[in-house]
Amino acid sequence: MGMWIGRNRKARICYGFDEVALVPGQFTINPNEVDISWELGGVKYTIPIIAAAMDGVVDTKFAIEMGKLGGLAVLNLEGINTRYEKPQEVFVRISEASNEEATKLVQSIYLAPVKEDLIFSRIKEIKKSGAPAVVSTIPQNAQRYGKIAQEAGADIFVVQSTVTTVRHISSEYESVNFEKFCKEMPIPVIVGNCVTYQTTLELMDIGISGVLIGIGPGAACTTRGVLGIGVPQVTATCDAAAARDTYFKKTARYVPIITDGGMSTGGDICKAFACGADAVMVGSAFAKAKEAPGKGFHWGMATPHGNLPRGTRIRVGTTGSLKMILYGPAELDDGSQNLIGALRTSMGNCGAMNIREMQQTELIIAPAIISEGKIFQKAQQVGMGK
């Protein structure tokens, strides 16, 4: 499989969201009657969209609001919310800083130590509201913060790094034993990120509850540029879905895959599910929400997910409430709002009654899909013509 790129060397052709399209089904369904729920660790969640563990996106208030709307939001346990008693004051300082000041400011902000009592209180605050408490950390701190999280009542624990494998070799430090960690944690553990069939299979085999798929495609991710590493999300999701299905046939245990990054519109999200995703993790789309603590900014955070170098800041602007982004009504024509409506409508047109059926939707290679026949959109600078 693959094409020759030089003597004795082949490379596989891989695809991203802009290069494929979905084929309508032989019958259609009322969008209001499709089931978009998904399960993790035996618990059913209303909508299959998760807000990423980015400081500019998720704080306790955002997590609570996301929970009320049926979704999940991941709180970064090594970010601003667990370093400062009054994180909103820090967010205001970052948002008001000039571009020249922003880099040094953010770098200095992350020098403050993480306070374990704040980890406990932030989780308690989310739980008190009735919303699911989902938290994230890097592998090196999983053992320590995992104990605090479960004592505080967290519902889901995420362990995330730029590239995650079961077998990590190092003579300088002891790597986390994911299998032992998952057995000791009484709550579901999501691990990521990976992009290959074999690694996904090995991660599922050690007892994780879900796996994050995506290296390189995120809006704030520099992994491809800095390290040259990454796989386009369509191919990565399809490969991971194949691993999930193989593992299910072998063990009868279904481990959901969560496509993480590279999705900025409802169309991208719909394609992710057609490729085999059970849920998606989104960052940039929610950074634009009025409820986001960063107020329309991305900046480098103390997370290992290949994000922007610590201190870099990008303005994305605010474009509406979280409810509008999820449920509409859309005020913009670029696909960044009413994500749930887009998913329901796409599933209805593809004849998919639920997420499992959406995963069977026919995909075609269509690199011209974003430009074909869009002459008027381009002229008017609307929709895909922007």
UniProtKB/TrEMBL annotation:
Coiled coil: none annotated. GO terms for molecular function: IMP dehydrogenase activity. InterPro entries: Aldolase_TIM, IMP_DH, IMP_DH-rel2, IMP_DH_GMPRt. Keywords: NAD, Oxidoreductase. GO terms for biological process: GTP biosynthetic process. Residues 15-297 form the IMP dehydrogenase/GMP reductase domain. Pfam families: IMPDH. It comes from the Bacteria. Belongs to the IMPDH/GMPR family. NCBIfam families: IMP_DH_rel_2 (TIGR01304). This is Inosine 5-monophosphate dehydrogenase. It comes from Candidatus Schekmanbacteria bacterium RBG_16_38_11. The lineage of its organism: Bacteria, Candidatus Schekmaniibacteriota.
